[in-house]
Structure formats: structure tokens, C-alpha cells
Amino acid sequence: MRIRGLSHVLVVATLVAVSAIVISAAARIPPAPAPASIQAHPDRTATPGTTIMGFAWTGANEPIAEATVRLRDVLSGAIEALAVTGAGGAFTFLDVEGGTYVVELVDDRDRVVAVGQAFTIGPGQTVATFVRLPVVKARLPGLFANLGTTVVSTAAGLGIVAVAPPAQAASPDR
């Protein structure tokens, strides 16, 4: 697929920038308050043998020890369980009811600082997942440093495999 001009590239760059702003704004939404001590949602019956295990990492891919992670039901928004990571950043939720969940990494003030990918687990299954802090970079100095890479990656994800300048019209004199 050929693109004529930079207008399509600018549209993709704008979409990437808007997506970054939306994601940044969503990260600032405070989490729903949770009870001080919670093991499982009271309206659910845990399924023996259903296990969620994973790791919490920094943006530099180093384990986060003694961090609080919580299991949130994506459909109801309820916090289903809490865990504290071990020395290697590992956490486990045992005997969980089947459903669709995300793992949230929370700070000492119970604010969400990172969210893992959503996953679905069925009764008796085991799921491995992770939650990773974002990489922190300077806000303005490198604002457009990786814009070209981002635009190319996004375009490739949309199926755009090449960008070419507009064809020069040949004049009858040439």
C-alpha cells in the first residue's frame, strides 16, 4: 500500500499522541476504595485449584519486593484479593473464582501505579501474568525523540508497509 504525501503519517502521529494523552489521563483516575483487609469477594465462591501467579517488575525489568498487588474483576470492578510480592517480585492468588481480571500494583497510599493486561481464567485453571511499572523519562526534552519510531511502528501495525513521496507529474516538455 502506497501513501501519497505526509498527511497519512501526520494522522497516525496525531493518533499516537492522542492515545498517549488518554492513557496518561486514565492513569490518574483514583481507584475504587477497598476494605482494609480483603481476601476474596464475599459474593463469590472460590474454586479450589484455580490459581493466578505472576511477577511485579520495575520499568527496568527488575523485581519489586514487598509490593502490594490486587486482583480486580474487570466486569464488576470489585477487588477480589490482595497479595504482597516476595523477594523476587512473585505473587500468587489461590482458589480464585473463574472470570476476567487485571492485576494492579498499588503504592503505600493504595493508589494504582501500574496495571497488567486483562486475562480470563476458568475453574481449575492456572494463569501466569505480570505487572510492570512504566519506564520514567523526562517529559519535555525527549518528547519527540522516539516519534519517528512510534509512527513507523503504529503504521506497520495498521498494515502500512511503505511511505513514498508524491509522484512528480511529468510535464509534456520533458
Short structural description:
The chain starts with 6 loop residues before the first helix and ends in a 17-residue tail after the last helix.
Highest-level CATH class of the largest domain = Mainly Beta
Helix content: 10-25%
CATH topology of the largest domain: Immunoglobulin-like
User: Mind telling me which CATH architecture of the largest domain this is?
Assistant: Sandwich
Main beta sheet strand tally, sense and closure:
5 strands, antiparallel
Give the CATH H-level superfamily of the largest domain: Immunoglobulins
- How far apart are the termini? 28 Å
Description of the structure:
With 174 residues, the protein is α+β, with helices and mostly antiparallel strands. Helix content is 18%, strand content 26%. The chain is built from two helices and eight strands; from the N terminus they run αββββββββα. Helix 1 packs across helix 2. It is extended, with a radius of gyration of 22 Å.
Supply the key terms:
8 strands; alpha+beta; 174 residues; five-stranded antiparallel sheet; 2 domains; three-stranded mixed sheet; disordered N terminus; Immunoglobulin-like; extended
Task: Tell me the layout of helices and strands.
Layout: H1 7-27, E1 51-57, E2 68-73, E3 79-84, E4 90-93, E5 99-106, E6 112-115, E7 119-121, E8 126-132, H2 147-157
